[in-house]
Amino acid sequence: MGVRETRLTNDLRQVSELIANSGGSLRLISKTGNPPYEYIIEYRCKGIEQVNGNNPVYRNTHQVKIKLGTNYPREKPDAEFLTPIFHPNVFADRDVCLGEYWTPGETVTELILRIGKIIQYSKDVLNLDSPANSTAKTWASNNMSRFPVDTQTFKVNIGWTDISWTDV
């Protein structure tokens, strides 16, 4: 098995674990290839579908197609929203602007989590300096107090107080 196939196999394992531990906030709609080189992921969190005047129209489910090209992991994946979204870092054709700083060490699970933060307008990933959508950038710049629109982590946190002796 080559480097790419090994990486794709490891990515599948990690994506499966992330989804299994997401508490239902992530769902694998489909995967293509063996090992998979394309995923369609459903996110269950609040994001903005469009803006009506100055008021956001929210959407609670989002689907994203992630494609791992033939030069992955040396080259960054492509990510495209299949559902409507209004965001400064998403182009009009719904391609996600992932920036120029892809490193082969970044995993698909990290990308899935980063896209989830993009959906929610998390301030740590919101890039207004190099927008893909200038209309969304202008609106976001004037509405920073509204962000993030959700705080879903896509991970289930189990604390010691959540475990009972019947669970053991």
UniProtKB/TrEMBL annotation:
Record Gene3D superfamilies: Ubiquitin Conjugating Enzyme
InterPro entries on file: UBC (IPR000608), UBQ-conjugating_enzyme/RWD (IPR016135)
Pfam families, per database record: UQ_con (PF00179)
Domain spans labelled UBC core: 55-147
The name this protein goes by in its record: UBC core domain-containing protein
Annotated source species: Microcystis aeruginosa Ma_MB_F_20061100_S20D
